[in-house]
Specification:
With about 210 residues, this protein is mainly α. It has seven helices and two strands. A hairpin with a 5-residue loop joins strand 1 and strand 2. The N and C termini lie far apart (about 70 Å). Bound molecules: heme C.
Length: about 210
Amino acid sequence: MSVRPLLVLSLLAAPLCGVACSEQLLNPMADHRQPRERAYRPSDFYADGLAMRAPPAGTVPRERRTMNPTLTTGIASYTGQVAPNGERVARYASKIPVPVTRDLLRLGRKRYDITCGTCHGPLGDGNSIVGKQMSLRPPPSLHLYANRAPGYIFEVATHGFGLMASYAAELSVEERWAVVAYVRALQVSQNVPVGSLTPDVRRQLEQEHP
Ligand code: HEC
């Protein structure tokens, strides 16, 4: 039933059945009034007699807390202090909690270019066509965050920050860590002393940029 006939119906019904019933008709979304099951209670709706359902076989919730919560939150521990906004102050993971391999970096580059680079720029310096159109608060250069813990970058990708949205729906946990690893690679790539390069990389660089 579309909204309009329902509204007309409830306006007609209201004087007939009193306050309680008209409220239910006027606010059909009030879920506490809809038939529902209660957690941990029996149910005669399902054949097994239980109200609570098990996840379909072979599936896991996307953000399931594992035995290693740092993996899914980026948070290593809590300081015990509470921030002015009421949230617990976190210590972010100072290391990427998955093996950083060439494949992980390759995945991170792919996902970064598609998901983050559109705003933060392919080099991570905030230089992008989309960023130039964002007048309210342009995406910052990620090189300014070179000293932030990897867990913090993971947390921003997971929950968003300020005007930036969460990318947890677009990127799996592994992909987010891959992006974090690639952001680190970008940060290093723009700030590396020439003297610390291996001779072959240095030679290549000097050939490309004489
Ligand atoms: C649609 C544009 C957009 C995309 C896509 C985007 N960001 Fe952002 N990002 C922003 C903006 C805008 C800000 C500044 C938000 C603010 O200060 O309110 C920001 C801020 C940040 C910050 C700084 C947070 C801080 O503490 O100041 C980090 C780190 C970051 N983004 C990482 C990422 C990563 C990683 C991705 C990809 C998963 C990503 N962003 C995707 C627009 C974007």
